[in-house]
Design a protein that fits this description.
Layout (H helix, E strand, L loop, with lengths): L1 E3 L6 E3 L8 E3 L5 E3 L7 H16 L4 E3 L2 E6 L2 E8 L3 E10 L5 H14 L5 E5 L2 E9 L5 H26 L2 E2 L12 H9 L1
Antiparallel strand pairs: 1-2, 3-4, 5-6, 6-7, 7-8, 8-10, 8-11, 9-10
Length: about 190
């Protein structure tokens, strides 16, 4: 396994070192060998606890997930099977009319305005999501992912709600009425 120092960009082979072991980079920065396998949830738990202490944000734990409120964004941090972390926030419900145009706008924002986060869709609900494998994850990257999700959710919910009449994620919405994009396109043409 390779580990990169964020300060000097040097890469070190740490495959012979134990998870949690520390060593100095060429620039003098202290690097920590990331935990793998069964240690992965403990790594994320440590990062979540450290973030809560340093930021003053209350993180509530439930099984392998942590929950926090950042402005209008309700954020969930989850350790997924296969040694992956996902930081997600339910965002907005799609509008019943103009769905295709709203999705186009969201995809444009994905490219230019979401940092490391991205918009995702499940049923009729949009999410802001950041995810990656746990191997090599360091605390700074964890914080960047958390901030990217919370900032994107908080920055764009009001904008998109006004532009497209999207309902807040907390407002229950029947997603059964959503039609496929091809059907929507025909409807919007007519």
């Amino acid at each position: 396994m390779l580990l990169r120092c964020k300060k000097c960009n040097n890469t070190y082979d740490v495959s012979g070192k134990q998870p949690g072991e520390t060593f100095k980079s060429q620039c003098g920065d202290i690097l920590v060998v990331p935990m793998r396998g069964e240690h992965a949830p403990a790594l994320v738990a440590g990062y979540a606890e450290r973030y809560a202490k340093e930021s003053g944000v209350t993180l509530q734990k439930n099984a392998e997930s942590w929950f926090a409120k950042f402005g209008s964004a309700q954020v969930t941090i989850t350790v997924l099977p296969g040694e992956e972390i996902r930081i997600a926030s339910p965002f907005l419900n799609l509008p019943k009319k103009g769905t295709q145009l709203a999705l186009r706008r969201v995809l444009e924002l994905n490219l230019a305005s979401t940092g490391g986060a991205r918009f995702a869709l499940e049923g009729g609900q949009l999410f802001v999501v950041w995810s990656r494998g746990l191997e090599g994850l360091d605390y700074e990257e964890f914080v960047d992912g958390l901030r990217s999700v919370s900032r994107t959710g908080d920055d764009f919910d009001d904008v998109l709600r006004k532009e497209w009449g999207m309902a807040a994620a907390e407002q229950a919405q029947d997603t059964e009425e959503y039609v496929l994009p091809a059907e929507l396109l025909e409807e919007e043409k007519g």
